[in-house]
From TrEMBL:
It comes from the Archaea. This is Glycosyltransferase. InterPro entries: Nucleotide-diphossugar_trans. It comes from Pyrobaculum ferrireducens.
Length: 53
């Protein structure tokens, strides 16, 4: 059994790069459980909405 991993993404006002990065993370192949945590620091753009998708 593979260890569970967490990817922590700190971001502020980075909606476009965040969308691309999260898509790339989702495409990775890992045989264990993966948790992605996006820590949004009060962005004034649509970073939080994009991360929720």
């Amino acid at each position: 059994m593979r260890p569970r991993i967490a990817v922590i993404v700190p971001i502020c006002d980075g909606a476009v790069p965040t969308d691309l990065m999260l898509a790339n993370i989702a495409e990775q192949v890992y045989p264990g459980e993966v948790e992605v945590i996006v820590a949004d620091s009060a962005s004034s753009d649509c970073t939080a909405e994009g991360a929720e998708r």
